Structure formats: C-alpha cells, structure tokens
Structure prediction request, 309 residues.
Amino acid sequence: MHVHSRTSACGYSTHQRLLELAVASERGVLAVTDHDSAAGGVAVRDLARRNSDDVLVLVGMELTTTDFGHVIVFGRGVEEDWGWVKNSPFPTGIPAHWVAIQAHPYRGAITVTDGAVDAPELPSLPERIDAVEVWNGGDRIKKSPHLRAEYHDLSWSHVRRNGKVGVASSDGHRPIWVHSYFTRFERPVESIEGFVDQLRAGTVTPQSQDDAHLQWCYEGHRRREVIEWQQAGKDWRGLAAAGGHDLETAAGVLATFERVQNLDFRGATMAQIAGETTLETHMVAEYLDIVDEEKHSSAKREAKSRLRR
Prediction:
C-alpha cells in the first residue's frame, strides 16, 4: 500500500518496471503512492489498461503535511486537482469516500541511550486519518533496522491511543523491498471503493515476510548503499566503515557490480553474465537491477550539475 515510482524524486522504479514486477509476481493489486502527486499511479494504471494486464492499480498520493508528517490518501478522485499544496496542514475536509493513513509516524524520532528509549509524544490524530503504519519497510530495512522492536511498540501504542487501524507497508522506493511488509485484507480487493471500505472498517491485518526474506532485503540494501556511495564519488570506505560494513566484502560487491555493469553494456545476456561472474541467476538479476538504478541516479546527478552550472 506504499510504493514509489520515479515520479517521486526518491523513487527508482519506472512505471513499466512496477507493472512488470506486479505481473511477474502474480500480484492482482498494485498501489502507487508518490510524494505529493498522483501522476505515477495514473501512469501505471494507464499502462495496465493499455497492456490489458489483469492488475488493479490503486492510485494514491503521499502528502507531505506540516502537522502529521507523511499521510497517504486513497480514493476515487485522488488523481484530480483537488487543491493539495505540499507542506500544508493535513486537509481534514477530504471526501468521505477517501481513506488516509499516517506513514512511518516515528521515523527519525527514536533514540536509545544506555537501553532507555526516548521518543516524542506525537500529536493526537484527527478523525479523518483512519490508519497508521505500524510496520514500514523503509524504516525496518533501510533507515533503522536495529530499532524494529522500538518502532513496533511505539507505533502500536500510537494506534491504540488514537483508536486507529494498524497497517503494514513496504514503502518501496526500490523494487527489492516492495513485498517485505504488507497488509492482508479479509476479502479480495476488487475496486478502490472496496479497498477503502475494508481499511476504514479495520478488516485488515499487518503482515511481514519471514526473517530470511527480510534479511535478504536488508543485505540487498547494504549492497546498494556501498555501490551508490562509490558511484557518486563519495568516500565509500569511510562511509562503509562508519556504517558497520566489512570493507573486504564491500570491495567485493563493488568489483562484482563493475563486472556486471560492463557485461550489460556489452549486451551480455543473463546466462552469459552468470557464466562470466559465477553468480547465481537471482543474484545476476539483483545486480542488473542495481545497474538500472544507478543509471537513474547518474542521470539525476547530471541534471543537478547542469542546474548548478
């Protein structure tokens, strides 16, 4: 229920790629929730219709509010120009047939000192925010995996204190963790109206993949982290050391990335890359994903450089 495309500045997946992944994984429903824009969701929905893909695309938007952080909204008409302006207060007058979900309420707000957890008291939620993410893949895999238990306890307390519905979302900026955390609906979701009705009724249950899958997501993110630093010309050794990476392993990841990148540039197939590198097929696919993501990152860096010039 929380997936980003390249319509978000922080997203890495093209609209086509998100749809391909949904079809390949036999997912019948795909929610796209870009920052302060429904354009990504509309683009994916239109692609699905043109391709006659049997995927229900739920068009959402992640609002950047000044009072309740990031709030995701879904509902018929979200894609229309209804007056939203980024960095405004949460619009409590949204239509009755919409649903609103507070995303990652404690992101960046938790510290632990000598075993003592310090977190702010969050503002009470208005009636028109219906649900809260108690598990968020961006926090639990990328940003603060060492604080999973703390995020869990604080988020559930926040939900109960406000009488809201608890949900789980991947916050998938990259494809690797899109299926990490998710929400199970009591009945099949066949329309945006049915989706909203079940969420507001609370007939949903937060879910996560097993520990092995979450560890795979975590390790995949760590590989991307080192590659991103190196490709951006940063001091990857210093950053890796500060982030607890094993430097020999990190150097091996970079060497493998460069080999896959070169083979891809020369037009090698996945089977040829696997033969040249001795990587298993699923790891070849993962490194090719990173090659594609880094092309996108490089283009963004170049665009920023041109603006500065």
Summary: The chain has a mean pLDDT of 94. The first strand starts at residue 29 and ends at 35.
